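Give me C-alpha cells for this 335-residue protein.
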Amino acid sequence: MKKLLLIATGGTIACSEGTKGLAPSMSASDILSYASDSIDGCSIDAFQLFNIDSTNMQPEYWLDIMKMIKDRYEEYDGFIVTHGTDTMAYTSAALFYLIQNSAKPIVITGAQKPISYEKTDARKNLTDAICFAREGIGGVYLVFDGKVISGSRAEKLRTESYNAFESINYPFIAKIIENKVVYNKKAQIQKKSQKTLFSNSLNSNVFLMKLVPGSNPHLLNKIANDYDGFIIESYGSGGIPFEGNRNFLEAIESLTSMGKSVVITTQVTLEGSNLTIYEVGKRALESAVIPAYDMPIEAVVTKLMWTLGQSRNQEKIRQLFLTPIENDIVVLGSE
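Here you go.
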C-alpha cells in the first residue's frame, strides 16, 4: 500500500466566503475528506504548511515546501501539494529545480473553484493528483483538468476555465481518464537512477522586464545594483531594440560587464525564442546574454533564481542555466 503525504498551502481549493471575498480557510484534513472515495490502495496523511492565497506566495515559501518534503522523504512514497492557481506554475517550476532526480512523485494541484462548492473542479483535480501519485513515477508534476504536466513546463493561460493550465513547448506527460492514467507516448519520462538532490539555496534578486515600444533602457541602469539577475521579455524570436535613444543593447552590455546575468526570452507563449535569426537577436548574443530558448517564463524565473543560488560566477551561472534538467529546455542544436 502506497503512503502519501498531502501538504496544503491554501489557494482557491481551500477557500470559503469571507467579508472581503474568497479567502483560504479550510484545513488540509478538510480538503482530504473530499477525496475519501479515491484513496483505495494508499494511505494519505495531511499536513497544513500554509493557508494563503497564492498571490502571497514567496520564494522563501518554496524552500519551506522543499524542506518539508526533504524531511519526510523517506517516510512517504509520494507527495501532493495543494496550491492556489495564480502562482502554481512558479511553485511547480521552483520545486522542479529545488528537488532533482526525485525517485518519488511530487504532484502539485489546485482548483478554479473551492472544493466545498457543489460545482467545482477541485474534487476531480485532487482525485487525479492522488491517482497519479499512486503510480510512483518520480519527478515534479502539475496535475490539472485531467492533464499531467512536467513541473517546468506548466503555465496558466486561463483565469476562469477549468482547463487553466497548458504544457508549454513540450508534450503533456499523461491524461487521467476515469481514475486511470493514460501515458503520452510523445513524452519522455526519465528513470531516476541518481541520488535525489535537494537544493537549499535560491537567490530571488531577479528583475523581469517586459519590453513594450517606448520602454526606457535607463531603468536598467538605475536598478543595476539592486539585482543579481535580469530577464528581458522581448518580442517575437527574442530581438533587442538598439536604435536611437532607447538602445537596450548598451544597457545590457553595461549589466553583463558588471557581472550581472541577463536572460533573454520572448513574450510569445509558444515555440520559444531564437536569437540567431535576426540582427536584433544576433547583436544581443554578442553581449554575453543567456538565451532562454523554449522555456516558459515561470521556468526562466525560477531556474535563474536557482542558478544564482548555486554560484556567483557569471560563466558558471550561464552553464548551469543552459544545461538541460530532464526536459526543461531545448537548446538550439541539441534537438
